[in-house]
Amino acid sequence: MKDLELYIHIPFCVKKCNYCDFLSAPAGEQERQSYVESLCGRIRAYAESIRAYRVISIFVGGGTPSILESGQIERIFGAVYDTFRVDADAEITMEMNPGTVTKEKLLVYRRLGVNRLSIGLQSAEHEELKKLGRIHTYGDFLASYQTARQAGFQNINIDLMSGIPCQTLESYERSLKLIAELEPEHISAYSLIIEEGTPFYERYRKGKHVDELPDEDTEREMYVCTKEILESYGYHRYEISNYAEPGFECRHNLGYWNRTEYLGIGTGASSFMNHQRWKEGEEPVTLTRQEEIEEFMFLGLRKMEGVSRADFHRIFGEEMESVYKNVIAKMKKQSLLDEKKNRLFLTERGIDVSNYVMSEFLF
Length: 363
Description:
Layout: E1 2-10, H1 29-44, E2 53-62, H2 70-83, E3 86-96, H3 103-111, E4 116-122, H4 126-132, H5 138-150, E5 156-162, H6 169-181, E6 186-191, H7 199-204, H8 216-232, E7 236-239, E8 242-244, H9 251-257, E9 262-265, E10 270-273, E11 276-279, E12 285-286, H10 289-300, E13 307-308, H11 309-316, H12 320-333, E14 337-340, E15 343-346, H13 348-352, H14 354-359
Parallel strand pairs: 1-2, 1-9, 2-3, 3-4, 4-5, 5-6
Antiparallel strand pairs: 6-8, 7-8, 10-11, 11-12, 13-15, 14-15
Helix pairs in contact: 1-2, 6-8
């Protein structure tokens, strides 16, 4: 059977954050209930078309999936297990926000097979959370984290963000150390990107209030200290923005970077199967061979282990050099790429300018 990853989108949240450009919004109970019923129908509609697949990971994302009632989550997972062949050791992740779960909810998640939580903290500083428009305090996060541990979860990711308005290097370092000392198995550390259509975009466009944002040098220092501090606590960087204790790398996200086939179900969810990509409600687009080669390179180079020449040859039937000889030579000459054991990967300097490096692999 072929491997398949499953992503389930829950587009609801308590309140839209100031930086968020995801497909999510607050909704009433009736709207959430109607969505769950529709979602279960959409899941079951795949019963015939996925018989050749086994599900190796499930990621329930949003929005804030944890605002749903336990019974609604049970119905969703019931539909999943009725429809898909799910591996016994599948990684099953539920996203949650602090203050939206109880121990009873968490115990239901565990009973349903959820074995990994991803908690959106972003910062341990009260003022920074307020700037982001988060609904919780650091105290709320701590209570939720401790409750998750008490419920038996032994694989937890925490999201952190740098480049937040009014954030300093010192406050960011405090957040990093506070979280690392809690010993979560995984930490995702992202830099704030101000996206069009968000409240932050309206606030900071045309140069308004930019003095609130950390300057370029401070952001650079935050970037450097992330790796230094987390490595000192025993975390290893396995992807540009992701750190894990050994053995706790996110298998679902690795699947994206390795181009494992995945099916997204729910409003706006994306899928990649049979050399096609599509969003729910849209027609599939078949990737050209050129596009697949590009994806192999720029997705694979996000991983610290980089891309395998052997895999490239196995998938595309030719040597990597026959396609990218000049680009690889140029990137190596600039000390942005290196090679070891037949794998090509970003150097530390290459990680710093990863967008530039990856753009070089686009035809």
